[in-house]
């Protein structure tokens, strides 16, 4: 219920960060280190 009180942008941004973190975590699990920063800014 608390989510409804937050602005939409905050929720969307948080969701994006969570997804990004999941990808980084998966990469770390596979390669044992974090990936270098992408040069294309994605």
Describe the structure.
Helix content is 57%, strand content 0%. By secondary structure, it is mainly α. The mean pLDDT is 74.
Secondary-structure element order, as H and E? H
Separate helix tally: 1
* Total number of beta strands: 0
Residue runs with pLDDT of under 50 for 5 or more positions: none
Helix content: 55-70%
Indicate the mean pLDDT: 74
Task: Give the oligomer, counting copies of the same chain as homo and different chains as hetero.
Answer: single chain
Q: Per DSSP, what share of the residues sits in E-state strands of 2 or more residues?
A: under 5%
**Biggest sheet features:** none
Instruction: Kindly report how far apart the N and C termini lie.
Output: 32 Å
Overall 3D shape: elongated
Structural class by sheet pairing and helices:
mainly alpha
Question: Can I get a quick summary?
Answer:
The protein is mostly helical and about 40 residues long.
SSE layout:
Elements: H1 8-31
Features:
42 residues; mainly alpha
């Amino acid at each position: 219920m608390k989510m409804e009180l937050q602005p939409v942008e905050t929720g969307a941004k948080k969701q994006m960060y969570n997804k990004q973190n999941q990808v980084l975590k998966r990469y770390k699990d596979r390669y044992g280190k974090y990936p270098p920063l992408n040069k294309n800014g994605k």
